[in-house]
Every structure is written in C-alpha cells, then in structure tokens.
Amino acid sequence: MKMNQYTLTLLTAILLLFAGCSSDEDFLNEEAKSFLTTENAYLNKSQFEMAIGTLHRNVQTFYNAGDGEGDIFPLGLGTDVCFSPRDDQKVFNDWSQVNEFESLSSRWYSWQYGIIKVANTIIEGVEREEVKWNGDEEKNAIAAEARFFRAFAYRNLAHLYGGVPLVDAPVNEPKVDFTRTPRETIWQFAKTDLEFASTHLPIKTAIPGRIVRAAADHLLAEINICLKDYDGAITAASRVIDGEDGDYQLMTSRFGARASEVGKNVYWDLFRIGNQQYQEGNKEAIWVAQMEYNTPGGTVNYGRPLIERIMHPSWWRLTKAGYSGVAQDSTGRGVAFVRPTNYTNYKIWKNAAQDIRNSETCIKRKFYFAGDAGEGAKLGYQAGDLIPESFLTSLEDTMQLIYPVWWKFGTDKHLDAKPDNGYVRDFYVIRLAETYLLRAEAYFGKGDKDKAAADINTVRARSSATLIESADVTLDYILDERARELFGEEYRTLTLCRLNLLYERTKSYGHLAAQKTVSPHNNLFPIPQSVIDRNTGAVLEQNPGY
Q1: Residue 459: how many CA atoms within 13 Å on its side-chain side?
Q2: Which end of the chain is more exposed for a tag (fewer CB within 10 A), N or C?
C-alpha cells in the first residue's frame, strides 16, 4: 500500500512539472536566479570583506597545512638554516629530488595563484557601478588590501621561480595559452600594486591581522631592492621605521602575558602565546597571521599550528636519561621533523655569549638527567645532572632526541596544559626587525655601509649583542643577522633565491647531504610539470636544469 502511494505521488509530481512547461525546450531551460555570481555576490563593503577574509585564510594555510616538514619548506628547509633530521634521502636534503614533479614547491606555486585569483576578483569587482560604496576612500581601501595580497603572491612566485605567467584580471573562461612574464616585470607589477596599497591602506586598524600601510611599505622596500632601486627601498622602509606609517618600535622592555617571570627576556616575550598583536601593545608587529585556540576556523588543520611539534626535538623520549617517554607540559611533544643546521645552532653565535637571543632562555642547549637518571644511574649520574655529549651515542640521540630547542617555536606552559595541542600563537609574517634589516641591505646596495651598520646595530642593540663596525657589513653578514633574528619567520628560501645565493649558502652551511646534492640551477625552482602539461595552447618554458 505504501509503495503504491509513493508511486502515485511521484507520477503526479512529474505530470505537474511537465504541465508547467510549454515545450521540451522550456523544461530544459534553467534560471539560476538564486545562485551567487561575481555580479550579484559583491555589492557592498561587507561582501567584499568576506572575500578579503579568504585571502587571510590562504596565508594562514602557509603555517598550518600539514603534519610534517612541508610547512617549513619556504622558511628554509634544506638550505643554510635547517634540514630534515630523519632521513638524508628526504627532498631538500637531497636536492636532486627538487624537480618539476616535486609536490611541496608545486603546492606553493598553486597557493599563490589561488591568492591571485581571489584578489583579481576583488580588484575588478570594486569598480562595478552597481556596488554601493560610502565614498572612494572605502572602495580604495578594499582594493588596496586585495592589491597588497596580489603583490605578496607575485613576490612569492617571482622570488622562487623567476618569470611566471602574469594574470592581472579574472579568468572567466578556459585558458590554456599562458606564457611566462620576465621576473623583473613581475616585480615591477608587484611594485605598482604595493604603491597603490601604500597610498590607500589605513595606518592602523582595530582588527588584528588586517593589512596596514606599514606592511605594504615593508614589501615595497624588498621589491625595490630586487629592482635595484635602493633609494626607493630606503624611502619605503623609512616610512615604517621613522613613524610616517604609524607608531612602530622594537620592543625593548619586558611585555605581555608572562612579563613578570624572572630569568626571561624581551626576545623570549615576543613569542609567548598572546603576545603577537600590535593592538595589545606589541609595537613591532606589522603583519601577523592569526591562529585561534578552540575556535572554528581558528586554525587550518589538527586544531593547532604544528610549529612546536615540527621544530622541537623529542627529548621527552630519552628514556635512557630518565625521561618517561610521555610528553610533559614543560617539554611539549616535539617530533623532530626539522632540525636547525650547525650554522644556525652554533656558527652564527660565535662570540655572542651576551646576545639574549643566544641565551639559555631563548635557545635551550642544556639537558639534564630526569627521574631516576635511567641508564645514566649506572654511570653515577643523578636526576638534575647535566647530560654530557658522551652519553649521546646514537644518531637518533643527536638528530631527533637532543638538539638545541629554540623557544620561539614552543612553550613550557601550554594552553590547558596540553603538550601536544596547546601551543597556539599567531605567526609573524612581517616584524619591524626585518624592516631594519631590509633597509640595511638597501644601504649596503648603494654603498653606504655606515648607515647599513647603524640599522643592523639597532636590531643587535635590542638583544644586547656586540655592535658592529661599518667595515663588518657584507651581504653574508646581513644574512647571518637575519638568521639570528628571523629564523623560522622569514621565508629564508625566498630570500636566498631572490639574491641568487641559495646554492652558494647551502653549499657552505647546509646539512652535509644538502651540500652534496645542491646545484646552481636550484637558485630557481622548477615550474610544476602539471602546470606545463595543462597549458596546451602555448609553450610554458621550464627553468634551466630541470
């Protein structure tokens, strides 16, 4: 009976549907009045800001996409600063595996064009007549933020790959005939976007993470260096440093959530949970990617950023030294996907005992027997005794269990005391210290080593480091200082590629496996083969050596 009722109802519905159509063609015609398109979705500021939110979300992905070393790739994996300690056959330990089929650099390429796609939609959309704006200032501010992100993405592409296809408007129909635009033209395009952004972005915002004028001028300084417009770079950086873009200062006094704890310092404070926002008093935070604990959308994967897990050793697993093998709040749950090189852990700190960035507070180098001292008890050690190097006898001991812990990547007091899920802090994309080092690079580029040294010394003075003389300034020294100050923050791989120094620096300071396999052609990365294969209407040239 029920089956007959269902059949009758279905037949009646079908007959009514056809009865409402004057012909078969009417039945097939569709009117998508309720679907959102670029013509009806973006009609006011709030709708455009939803798209701006997507751009911020995309950048959040850079720092929180997966569980492994992948997120660290643009931060310098396999270069002079860090490597994968688990397997010398890993990509970026073995640079012969960096080819047109390699997935991490291919992902980076796709991510940038994802940003460009959304940015182009916004930039074109704000000019439509039907959009309701409260004046040109409101419209230009939205366009400026989108143009900032577009410039940021093209900067990320040009630094790493050289010339890439220039897409300056939405692509609304299939296109398979892209060609590569020269690197300098891409940089110039980014410069134009950043100049617009610098003019129309706000000096300050109440919303943490939103893009401000200082961020545009910081990137503009870097792009001008690429174009060898050193005066332009100095001018842009000076607008940030000298206060024209707002009140930015290096933090020189203890601040934030744990400022009252003795034995710590201001550099350590910069990386405590909750201390990253300009709006809450951190005057050197220019652009900060936002991460929120236990908030839907607050992180991308796994409920927290994985930076501590990726960057810290697993010293909690050193059971032979009395550790329980269970992660503690004080140790975190590092799994050693990435290890700093000897250059980063030791070489750059030679004669730097007074530098607070090199202090035991900021880089833990002393490890102690715990519990009952484990196997160490047989040798006469007790809990609390310093573990000697002679006790670390296996490759795992020194590659995964014990190596210097950079506390900028973790904490000894996790949220809710969860060592595997409680280090959720925001990520610096741009910090004022880097602006000083960019201006120093620009001064050095034009031959003014005195002013270059002065800017470097401003950064060093905050850390009580020995000041340098103008004769000490070289490009290598600036890169050393960037490693001391910005390791794990700057896109180190991009920095080295834009300077054409990835090969040279990796050959000199990288992990031994990387030194053996890196080649001069690695100063540019390969265009993904999947991109070349899909571009059937034109030849998309590959970079030499791939």
Answers
A1: 26
A2: N
Residues 6+ apart with CB under 8 A from 99: 526, 546
Q: Is residue 176 part of a domain?
A: no
Distance (Å, rounded) from C-alpha 370 to C-alpha 294?
A: 33
The answer to whether residue 130 sits within a structural domain is: no
Contact (CB, 8 A) for 410 and 423: yes
Inter-residue contact 105 to 528 (CB < 8 Å) = yes
Distance CA 497, CA 441 (A): 15
517 is written with which tokens? 């396999």
Query: Per residue in 378-392, is it b (16+ CB within 10 Å) or e — as a string?
Result: eeebeeebebeeebb
In order of 27, 29, 30, 31, 104, the CA distances from 35 in angstroms are 19, 15, 11, 9, 35
In degrees and rounded to multiples of 5, residue 6 shows phi and psi of -65, -40
Pairwise CA distance, residues 365 & 346, whole Å: 10
Among candidate residues 448, 524, 436, the one with its CA nearest the CA of residue 478: 436
Query: Position of tokens 């852990």?
Result: 345
* Cα separation values, 319 from 170, 224, 375, 418, Å: 57, 53, 8, 21
As a whole number of angstroms, the distance between CA 336 and CA 343 comes to 18
DSSP code per residue over 320-369: GGT--SS-BTTTB----S-EE-HHHHTGGGTT-TT-GGGSTTTEE---B-
d(CA 186, CA 147): 14
In this structure, is residue 142 part of a structural domain?
Answer: no
Q: DSSP letter at 170?
A: -
Question: Hey, which residues does 83 pair with through a beta bridge?
Answer: 339
Taking every pair of Cα atoms in the chain, the longest distance, rounded to a whole number of angstroms, is: 97
Q: What is the pLDDT of residues 422-436, one digit of tens each?
A: 999 999 999 999 999
Question: How many separate domains does the chain show?
Answer: 1
Q: Is residue 269 part of a domain?
A: no
Cβ atoms of 87 and 514 within 8 Å: the answer is: no
Band (67; pLDDT cuts 50, 70, 90): confident
Task: Kindly report, residue by residue over 470-517, the tens digit of the pLDDT.
Answer: 999 999 999 999 999 999 999 999 999 999 999 999 999 999 999 999
Q: Which two tokens stand for residue 428?
A: 């610096």
CA 263: distance to chain centroid?
30
Residue 403 is part of which domain span? 307-425
Nearest to 312 by CA among 402, 413, 425: 402
Q: List the structure tokens of 233.
A: 């770079």
Average pLDDT in the chain:
93
